[in-house]
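Appendix C. Worked example: AP2/ERF domain-containing protein
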Amino acid sequence: MARVPRGSWVARRRALDRLRRGSAHSAASRNHPQGCTWTGVQERVRGRWAARIRVPGTHTRLWIGRFEQALEAALAYDTALFCFHGPHRLPSPRRFNFPAAPRPKIREDVRATLTRADIKRIAESHARFLANFYVGTLPAVSPAAASPPPPPPAVAAADGAAAVANEATATTDGSNGNNCMG
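Step 2, the predicted output written as structure tokens:
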């Protein structure tokens, strides 16, 4: 397409068309799909999410991978950003999606020699690992499900019945049997 002088009627017409179309066609909405404002994350077909990052010093992008959740993709982007730049030397336009999230434990001399395939593998595995800890609230439990089951009739001793009742209340206290903090 030929370049149009700034003051011509064609340039004004294009500017009016851009205004008329609104923010649905702006660069911000193309880079951040509706409901996702994390850097490096794009929505794919069938509800999956992809993570990509620009490789420093080149004009290419590194495809990190496809994920089931946008959170996983954002964590993978953060891990790849850490692998490329380190914890404190980010270029000015770059920033972490989750600044307080733990980073992989990689020594500085090893981090400097990582290949793109290594960074992709580390980012995918670290993001999937961290996504397990960023869990939303647990679903509400109905009162019928929260009551402990009756003790089994085979237990004859009083000590055994008390032990079974203690185990039943320990697993139905909302922790779902997990010993995780959080």
